[in-house]
């Protein structure tokens, strides 16, 4: 999904992907990133504080947020489950966001 | 230390947040994890010491093989990971985590042995749910907790502590880490200890 975003000049400027490692330390997230060559930023959440703020969701979980022109935001997608088809999911997210 | 999640907020930005790992809260384990609540952090007294020979044992494994600690003597360093119980949140996070750092074990000529007091069918079902684990999973079910008792990591409730025992190729204990049962040990400490043991 990241590579698709990065290969499109318009999307690259407008869409950012970050990962949250629930229950993982900085070492673990760093090692995971290096081992699996994850090109986007990953953040450790070793004490589960981010997980608690999000609502202690089951994983994997995708949350998509639109930052509006006035700086406010809305969550337009929030669902458990991975991306079986990255193209299809990304297309749906971009449509839901109003970007497509 | 407070951590900050800083994202360059740009109007019109779409932010995709991927929340992952932590098998204990994964969808795969949904409705199948039993949360025992907060427990007394440590509830045992060690019977082994750093610098002493590690007590040998033979236990059945999920693969069907009986595995003895002594089979690794002269060949590999051994890390024994005692975890309290199958189908509980922290244990369900801890063992899959070792899959990510298998390279560190290989680089330091070490193997991992996972041990709980659960029986083989329980361990089979639980580890199957996790996906493939690269290390042997051993049952200390009968005589109940005998190996955990030998090492002094059997709790009064009948489960083992959350303990890592680092044993060198000569069979000598190089480090013992009995952690708070409620908290998964950071892989960083395991990696550091492995590297230190292999350098000796």
Index terms:
heterodimer, A: 100 residues, alpha+beta, two-stranded antiparallel ribbon, 5 helices, globular, B: 200 residues, alpha/beta, 5-stranded mixed sheet, 24% helix, disordered N terminus
Widest β-sheet, arrangement of strands of chain A: 1-2
Shape of chain A: globular
The description of the largest β-sheet of chain A is: 2 strands, parallel
Distance between the termini of chain B: 33 Å
Indicate the proportion of strand residues of chain A. 25-35%
How far apart, in Å, are the first and last alpha carbons of chain A?
Answer: 16 Å
Mean pLDDT of chain B: 90
In short:
With 100 residues, chain A is α+β, with helices and mostly antiparallel strands. In chain A, 40% of the residues lie in helices and 27% in strands. Mean pLDDT of chain B is 90; it is low at 1-9.
General description of the model:
The complex is a heterodimer of chains A (100) and B (200). Chain A has 100 residues and is α+β, with helices and mostly antiparallel strands. Helix content of chain A is 40%, strand content 27%. Chain B is of the alpha/beta class and 200 residues long. Chain B has 5 helices and 8 strands. Chain B has a 5-stranded mixed sheet. Chain B has a two-stranded antiparallel ribbon with strand order 2-3. In chain B, a hairpin with a 5-residue loop joins strand 2 and strand 3 (66-68). The longest helix of chain B has 13 residues, at 187-199. Chain B is globular and about 55 Å long. The two termini of chain B are 33 Å apart. The model of chain B is unreliable at 1-9 (pLDDT under 50). Chains A and B meet through strand 1, helix 3, helix 4, strand 3 and helix 5 of A and strand 1, helix 1 and helix 5 of B.
Task: Please outline the helices and strands.
The complex is a heterodimer of chains A (100) and B (200).
Chain A lengths: L1 H6 L1 H6 E8 L3 H10 L6 E4 L3 H6 L6 E7 L5 E8 L5 H12 L3
Parallel strand pairs in A: 1-2
Antiparallel strand pairs in A: 3-4
Chain B lengths: L13 E7 L37 E3 L5 E3 L8 E6 L6 H12 L1 H6 L2 E7 L3 H11 L6 E3 L6 H6 L10 E6 L5 E7 L7 H13 L1
Parallel strand pairs in B: 4-5, 5-6
Antiparallel strand pairs in B: 2-3, 4-7, 7-8
